């Protein structure tokens, strides 16, 4: 679906549709941190007036995905290194809690699915297939989140991951990161399948927070 067609969909109001479309552009790396967002150009692209675009940008600013600078313009939010690390710390705790709950609550078929996803990640890491590994990695984490069965935690994880999306993608470009990521997953998956909630939580938290320096380095390098 084109931007204009999506913006004309009757299912949700226009500002919300545009918010979702811009959010998707940010998450998928087509709008990079620091990129200017011109209301007039966006209105043309989505086939709408500037008013719903302005409302969509205000909603995105509330999500901290864009930054509105008076007398300057609107930009895709570029977090400072300390903000990035704070987000990783928060995400690490939430992901760790989800893993602990998954170790206690996952049904046997969910554990089988988790093992299958982990095996798929192993093969992709061995081949160095970054794009496919990234997709499988998200599926593995999603399986753990849903296995934990807590919608509030899932919402918090989703929000934090959305704010980190532009940097999360680039981390896998680093040499050896796919193999390191898979090795860290191994500890998490084994603990969940063994029903060892404390170990699962600690391993997942360390896996997420351990990325903090790499994320911060990416921010500093982009300045």
Automatic annotation (TrEMBL):
Name the UniProt record assigns to this protein: HTH gntR-type domain-containing protein
What InterPro entries does this protein map onto? GntR_C (IPR011711), TF_FadR/GntR_C (IPR008920), Tscrpt_reg_HTH_GntR (IPR000524), WH-like_DNA-bd_sf (IPR036388), WH_DNA-bd_sf (IPR036390)
Molecular function via GO: DNA binding; DNA-binding transcription factor activity
Q: Which UniProt keywords apply?
A: DNA-binding, Transcription, Transcription regulation
For this UniProt entry, which residues form the secretion signal?
none
Record-annotated HTH gntR-type domain positions:
12-79
Species this chain originates from: Bordetella genomosp. 13
